[in-house]
């Protein structure tokens, strides 16, 4: 399969993982972290304070919207995807699947 | 009793200062730490140990505060309408410069009365420069990150506009020309706004729309 030269990373970034978690539904920072950690069996166990600058940047870029709301009786800043983010996540996932398929094909041939 | 979380939050407050945006960042960090402490206590930790562990897991307060400031997390210092107000202002200046340039060209072609070609060329260049600055500043306001050359141009152009507008206001005032004073004030506003926007980008909420530039991870 031909490499997508418009995507030099040829991989999936932390932004896309966070957006994918939020694709399952709105969540606050702590819930995003635990979801990332749990669904990856502990592989994505981020230093906790690093998440917020990324969330704020994504919000500034118009990919997330945030509002304060009560979660379990506590006020939490809850993030959700914007329309632009949905499209971005789909594109990123498609790129990643192509890349993963290519890696699998190469590794499959080597074993 | 003061916990490690309380100390951490106080440190953040000292680092980020007092503003609505800083309060929001701190409140969010506090919420996270409270959730973490609650989860650790559910796992059997004492409140003191859980508080200490939550702070360690969160990371260094200085790094967090630096990231908050460096990434423009405090963008909401001024409301979004300011950006639109500046866009409207620069649009107005750009429109005025276009009309002015059109009038100058027509005058040059059909109605020149004694002005030298050099003087006309200088006036035309001035009008074109104002129009160009309006376009560049408008672009800067519409998107967050721009090439350094554009930012530098907008900044230097803003300084020039401030200087020129000062002279224009004084000259128009002496000539008793209220239109000239108004135009000078508009140019001064654009110049000042351009300089401040480039020098303090965190003051103005701005947008960036392309996912291609993302990868903060």
Describe what this molecule looks like in 3D.
The complex is a heterodimer of chains A (111) and B (217). Chain A is α+β, with helices and mostly antiparallel strands. Helices cover 53% and strands 16% of the residues of chain A. Chain A has 4 helices and 3 strands; from the N terminus they run H-E-H-H-E-E-H. Chain A has helices at residues 14-23, 29-39, 51-60, 83-110; strands at residues 27-28, 64-71, 74-81. Chain A has a 3-stranded antiparallel beta sheet with strand order 1-3-2. In chain A, helix 1 (14-23) packs across helix 4 (83-110). The longest helix of chain A has 28 residues, at 83-110. Chain A is globular and about 55 Å long. The model of chain A is unreliable at 1-11 (pLDDT under 50). With 217 residues, chain B is mostly helical. Chain B has 8 helices and no strands. Chain B has helices at residues 4-16, 20-42, 47-58, 61-70, 81-110, 117-142, 148-174, 178-199. The longest helix of chain B is centred in the middle third of the chain and has 30 residues, at 81-110. Chain B starts with a helix and ends in an 18-residue tail after the last helix. The interface between A and B is medium-sized, with 33 and 34 residues.
Report the C-alpha radius of gyration of chain B, rounded.
26 Å
Q: Give me the count of strands of chain B.
A: 0
Helix count from the secondary structure assignment of chain B: 8
What would you call the structural class of chain A?
Answer: alpha+beta
* Gap between N and C termini of chain B: 38 Å
Task: Please give the oligomerization state of what you see.
Answer: heterodimer
What portion of residues of chain B is helical? over 70%
H-E order of chain A: HEHHEEH
Low-pLDDT segments of chain A: 1-11
User: Which band does the percent of strand residues of chain A land in?
Assistant: 15-25%
- Most extensive chain interface and residues per partner: A-B, 33 and 34 residues
What is the ordering of alpha helices and beta strands of chain B?
Answer: HHHHHHHH
Low-pLDDT parts of chain B are: 73-77, 206-217
Distance between the termini of chain A: 19 Å
| Shape descriptor of chain B | rod-shaped
Percentage of β-strand residues of chain B:
under 5%
> What is the mean pLDDT of chain B?
80
Count of individual helical segments of chain A: 4
What's the β-strand tally of chain A?
3
């Amino acid at each position: 399969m031909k490499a997508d030269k418009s995507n030099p990373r040829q991989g999936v970034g932390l932004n896309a993982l966070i957006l994918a978690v939020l694709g399952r539904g709105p969540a606050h920072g702590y819930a995003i972290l635990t979801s990332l950690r749990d669904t990856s069996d502990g592989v994505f166990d981020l230093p906790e304070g690093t998440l917020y600058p990324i969330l704020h940047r994504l919000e500034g870029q118009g990919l997330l919207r945030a509002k304060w709301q009560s979660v379990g009786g506590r006020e939490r800043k809850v993030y959700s995807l914007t329309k632009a983010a949905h499209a971005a996540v789909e594109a990123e996932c498609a790129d990643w699947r192509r890349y993963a398929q290519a890696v699998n094909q190469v590794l499959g041939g080597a074993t | 009793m003061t916990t490690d979380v309380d100390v951490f939050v106080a440190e953040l407050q000292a680092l980020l200062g007092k503003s609505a945006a800083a309060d929001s960042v701190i409140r969010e960090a506090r919420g996270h730490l409270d959730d973490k402490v609650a989860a650790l206590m559910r796992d059997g930790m004492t409140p003191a140990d859980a508080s200490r562990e939550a702070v360690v897991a969160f990371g260094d307060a200085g790094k967090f505060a630096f990231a908050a400031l460096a990434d423009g997390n405090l963008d909401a210092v001024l409301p979004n309408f300011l950006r639109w107000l500046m866009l409207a202002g620069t649009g107005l200046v750009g429109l005025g410069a276009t009309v002015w340039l059109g009038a100058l060209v027509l005058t040059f072609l059909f109605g020149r009365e004694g002005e030298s070609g050099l003087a006309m060329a200088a006036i035309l260049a001035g009008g074109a420069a104002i129009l160009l600055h309006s376009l560049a500043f408008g672009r800067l306001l519409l998107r967050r990150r721009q090439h350094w050359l554009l930012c530098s141009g907008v900044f230097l152009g803003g300084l020039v506009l401030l200087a020129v507008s000062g002279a224009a206001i004084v000259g128009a005032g002496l000539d008793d020309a209220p239109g000239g004073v108004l135009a000078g004030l508009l140019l001064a506003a654009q110049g000042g706004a351009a300089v401040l926007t480039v020098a303090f980008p965190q003051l103005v909420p701005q947008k960036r729309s392309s996912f291609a530039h993302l990868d903060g991870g």
